[in-house]
Amino acid sequence: MKVLIVGSGGREHALAWRIRRSPRLTRLWVAGGNAGTASIAENVAVSPEDVPQVLDAARRLSVDLVAVGPEVPLARGLVDRLAEAGIPAFGPTAAAAQIEASKGFARQLMQEAGVPSPQFRVFSDLPSALDMVQRHHGPLVVKADGLAAGKGVTLCASPAEAAQAVQASMTGQAFGAAGQRVVIEEMLQGPEVSVFAFCDGQHLSALTAACDYKRLADGDQGPNTGGMGSFSPPPLWDESLAGQVKATIMQPVVQALAQRGTPYRGVLYAGLMLTTEGPKVLEFNCRLGDPETQVVLPLLETDPLELMLACVQGQLDRTAVKWDSQRACVGVVMASGGYPGKYATGVEITGLGQDDDASLVFHAGTRLEGAKIVTSGGRVLTIVGMGESLEQARFRAYQRTLGTSFPGACFRRDIAASSRLQGDLNWALRPAAAKG
Ligand code: AMP
Ligand code: GLY
Question: From ligand 1's centre to the CA of 188, what distance in Å?
Fold first, then answer.
């Protein structure tokens, strides 16, 4: 199979790395890409977000499958255009990608499907939104409706903060058009987990889960980022929780989308909070997560091309999807100094080392400059340690991270640390009375 991956982050390098190992693969290209993908595939110089450009490239290369990484081309209808051109594409259509592209759409769908969620309301006019906030007591979460590169959510401790967030979003100052509609939600509490399933429009694969770290600094301090690290599997993720999430969250949503005539094909990502009343949905995404992909794909035992084709063809019920339950992965993101604000690029990276069974380096914001590999973005690398336990994987991830360097590099030192695992354990150990 000739395959084209779309995107240029760590997620896409991990996809390329995993697809490279498929016995079905004959040739691999990456639309966009980085220095890491260039070492295992052929980069194509097009913008991953430019639908006509990617469509042209897929036609020109006469590929057998396109695998789309990021949400923006999905929301813009890349998969619809490819399908019209007769090119099999892995990922949801624009209609199904609304589950991520509009938080209001997603909340209404969840309500229709009876999926456990926080209380919410959707507003399109500023005075009504402000009125609701002022009548409310206690904390609230204000979310821009549209895509805001992971920055559209504001956690507000007081009505005054919520009013400010609503004002900034709805006047277009903070997130442009994406913020003119807002969803205002009840603030939930508990450990968070990201859950992934392959879907073919009707059927779902076995689920897998990971945790990610959105804040920049240790102890969940500092600004929100695209994600500073991740690990899989979370210790509290077991068959019983997986079964509950599949039955009460994933299946009902896939069914509701099929009933609406917009079946969901691709990876469905649920961001969950494990509350004392059980798991509730914070958000759905229409793709694999970044940096979660980097810790999840090394544990995928099934041939990814077979799996993606089964999703495209609606035959996932004939493919058993297996995740390695004997191993764990921990991913540490190395970012440019100053990220998520301003940062320098073009800085040389040294000590990248060799991948083996213990560790992998996935590139994000990197490019080749002659024989050198230099930085070209905010998140630069995800360094993944693998092992028989999270502790061993964590040790290996940090060992390799400490050998890799570039001026200004920053990374969190508490990815998969026992403090986080302890918080999760406390949830699992909560008194039976709170288990509902
Ligand atoms: P989202 O982009 O919707 O996942 O939101 C980003 C982050 O905001 C999540 O990872 C949570 O930590 C937090 N968050 C979102 N919605 C809620 C909520 N209803 N209650 C508490 N925290 C939330
Ligand atoms: N890691 C969060 C995301 O991919 O949206």
Answer: 8
Ligand 1 touching residue 185 (CB < 6 A): yes
Per CATH, the homologous superfamily of domain 125-180 is ATP-grasp fold, A domain (3.30.1490.20)
Q: Which atom of ligand 1 is nearest to the CA of 150?
A: 2
Best residue among 215, 269, 272, 282 to mutate for probing ligand 2, ranked by most atoms within 8 Å of CB: 269
**158-197 residues labelled b (16+ CB within 10 A) or e (exposed):** ebebbbebbbbbbeeebbeebbbbbbbbeebebbbbbbbb
Ligand 2 pocket, Cβ-based, cut-off 6 angstroms? 150, 212, 227, 285, 289-290, 292
Half-sphere exposure in the Cβ direction for 65 (13 Å, CA): 24
Secondary structure (3-state) at 272: strand
Q: How much of the chain is helix, strand and coil, in % rounded to 5?
A: 35, 30, 40
* DSSP secondary structure code for residue 57 in this structure: H
Instruction: Considering only the C-alpha atoms of the chain, give the largest distance between any 2 of them, rounded to a whole number of Å.
Output: 63
Provide the 3-class DSSP secondary structure of residue 342.
coil
Range of weakest confidence among 106-110, 145-149, 202-206, 401-405: 145-149
Q: How many CB atoms lie within 10 A of CB 325?
A: 11
The atom number, within ligand 2, closest to the CA of 290 reads 4
- In the structure encoding, which two tokens stand for residue 364, read together? 């994000």
- The CA 131 to ligand 2 mean position distance, Å, reads 32
Say whether 369 sits in a helix, a strand or coil.
strand
Residue 147 near ligand 1, beta carbon < 6 Å: no
User: What pLDDT digit, counting tens, does each position of 190-216 carry?
Assistant: 899 999 999 999 999 999 999 999 999
Domain positions in the chain are 2-93, 125-180, 192-422
The per-residue pLDDT for range 14-27, each reduced to its tens digit, is 999 999 999 999 99
Residue in the structure block whose two tokens are 């028989």: 388
Q: Which residues pair with 29 in a beta bridge?
A: 4, 42
3.60.150.10, 2.60.40.10, 3.40.50.20, 3.40.190.10: CATH of 2-93: 3.40.50.20
Question: Which structure tokens are listed for 119?
Answer: 């209380």
With residue 30 as reference, give the H or E element that holds it.
Answer: strand 27-32
Residue nearest (by alpha carbon) to ligand 2 atom 2 = 289
19 C-alpha vs ligand 2 centroid, how far in Å?
21
| CATH class of segment(s) 192-422 | alpha beta
